[in-house]
Amino acid sequence: MTALYWQTVGEGDRDLVLLHGWGLNAQVWSCMLERLTPHFRLHLVDLPGYGRSQGFGAMSLEQMAETVLAAAPENAWWLGWSLGGLVASQIALMQPHRVRGLITVASSPCFAAKDDWPGIRPEVLSGFQHQLGQDFQRTVERFLALQTLGTESARQDARQLKSVVLNQPMPSVEVLNGGLEMLRTTDFREPLAVLTLPLLRIYGYLDGLVPRKVAGLLDAMWPHSPSAIIAKAAHAPFISHPDEFAEIICTFVAENGIRPQNAQ
Questions:
Q1: Which one of the listed residues 20, 39, 43, 235 is annotated catalytic?
Q2: Binding site annotation covers 83?
Q3: pLDDT in the model for residue 165
Q4: Catalytic positions (predicted)?
Q5: Which residues have C-beta within 8 Å of that of residue 29, sequence separation ≥ 6?
Q6: Mean pLDDT, rounded, for 69-98
Q7: β strands within 198-237, DSSP E
Q8: Tens-place pLDDT, residues 252-264
Q9: Is the pTM here over 0.70, yes or no?
Q10: Calpha distance 210→83 (Å, rounded)
Q11: Residue 30 a catalytic site member
């Protein structure tokens, strides 16, 4: 049986869909619920094959985006963290009329380092793909540990991420490899340059997976898209700095207006 896990909570009059990162599930947003539910109707999704969305095999980025979009409200804001940022970006590129605005968190239009583009070295991503088949759980834990390196609360944050993974069904090696393949091959730098939707990019200053240099390069490439860098955060800024993170989101959405709920 294949069914997408989808939970809706909150009292706000704006829909906000939250998409998690590689290896994780929607429980990763638990620290943000009390901060965001007064302002938004939150849609918490386990991406196909992750967490409680069981029964899905490896997908292309397009297939994953189509599967998630099919269950989504018509005119939502979309927030994607890391790999979830690629899924949300794919949705905005495929069906811009369905997207009120886009927020990416610790995400890059091109995760792999290329020429003068900063990112994850391709051999590192290939190494993770190879290691998944040998020691599945340890590989996932290593990747999670990389996400919190350098923060004042690194150990605590890493434990929180690990508990999110262990408290729900684990993705299959096939699904995790498919996600790493998306990180390794996707390059949205040019397609997103012409996107006319509101687009906010949030980064962690200490992030070792999406270097802060990406923010400055995209500021120049995408002048329509503001960026925010959280000073002492790494790859999971909403876990280490939840109040600052919530304030950035609420301010950006308020500044970009509210489209009436009955608008088509």
A1: 235
A2: yes
A3: 87
A4: 82 (nucleophile), 207, 235
A5: 18, 20, 42, 44, 238
A6: 97
A7: 199-204, 227-230
A8: 999 997 543 333 2
A9: yes
A10: 11
A11: no
